[in-house]
Amino acid sequence: MSDTLTIIRPDDWHLHLRDGAMLTAVLPETARHFARAIVMPNLVPPVVTGAQAAAYKERIMAALPEGMTFEPLMTLYLTEDTDPDDVAAAHASGMVKAVKLYPAGATTNSASGVTNFDKVRPVLEKMAEIGLPLCVHGEVTAPEIDIFDREAVFIDTVLDPLRRATPDLRVVMEHITTKQGVEYARSGDETLGATITTHHLILNRNHLLVGGIKPHYYCLPVAKREEHRLALRAAATSGEARFFLGTDSAPHTDPNKEQACGCAGCFTATNTMSLLAQVFEEEGALAQLEAFTSKNGPAFYRLPENTDTLTLTKSAPNYPKKIITGEGEVTVFDPGYPLTWGVVPA
Ligand SMILES: NC(=O)N[C@@H](CC(=O)O)C(=O)O
Ligand SMILES: [Zn+2]
Ligand SMILES: [Zn+2]
């Protein structure tokens, strides 16, 4: 087994960059290793229109340190008032690469999300017509549904009916966390993709809850039983075109994580490639890392693969424990074991 691995430069197909001082601090953490990212629109207020996405993209590019290259792939936050023609124009300009569906109340800053799916039908039909993917946070929000069942129930009661009603709609199941998610993704045709986060390959719900609650392991969808983590590892390392990396790196300051009602989100932008190389090596699948991080995503999004490379080497990396931001400190995801793969600086 060789001690270095060179892959096509990776992309992150699900990323939270936030805005303002937080954006400035976290953007280099992604741009250091990743060429592009699908940028989530759940700002306050959300990025709903093409004009808002264009302005957000300008703020991202203005925050990029000199000498770094990075391409933000913009998304629009789907609301019941979204205008199909605005979506089509934003797509036609090449700026917007996906529309994001949050069920109302499902996660951080999702209050403007969808409650009545009939109201967004014209937008979904337009997207199917123009081939623009819908990225879905797949959890139901009904209070009577157990939080550990919310993804599986969403698949049966919302996602499958939605795909049957609009069969040409291209859909990405974002941050799948269950074996039901893996099975459903596999059951689809080429209109269906699924992102998997780094942390859901590492955590099960015991890591979150046994021996004291770990606020930095709390994210949505919440980590599930071990059997689900194993199903995700098998899917991610399979090389199957359906599955690609979406880190869902979601920075919140430490005070916002470590409190009586802590925010959901794991910040993995900094060390994701090291974490993934170790996971893939453990699964005997280092040869599939490139498919997961650098090939399957562009293929689904109908974009070219990156032309430059990233080299990983078998030596303990040295990442900061926290990122200092203008809003406060953000803890970098700590898997609880030493990392064994580093990234060779470009
Ligand atoms: N994943 C999370 O736990 N949090 C994300 C929102 C999301 O992706 O659902 C965030 O924006 O903080
Ligand atoms: Zn989400
Ligand atoms: Zn997310």
From TrEMBL:
It is an enzyme of class 3 (hydrolase). One of its GO terms (molecular function) is zinc ion binding. It comes from the Bacteria. One of its GO terms (cellular component) is cytosol. Pathway: Pyrimidine metabolism; UMP biosynthesis via de novo pathway; (S)-dihydroorotate from bicarbonate: step 3/3. InterPro entries: Amidohydro-rel, DHOdimr, Dihydroorotase_CS, Metal_Hydrolase. Its EC number is 3.5.2.3. Its cofactor is Zn(2+). Zn(2+) 2 binds at K100, H137, H175. The active site is at D248. Residues 12-312 form the Amidohydrolase-related domain. The modification N6-carboxylysine is found at K100. Substrate binds at H16, L17, R18, N42, H137, L220, H252, A264. Catalyzes the reversible cyclization of carbamoyl aspartate to dihydroorotate. Belongs to the metallo-dependent hydrolases superfamily. DHOase family. Class II DHOase subfamily. This is Dihydroorotase. The lineage of its organism: Bacteria, Pseudomonadati, Pseudomonadota, Alphaproteobacteria, Rhodobacterales.
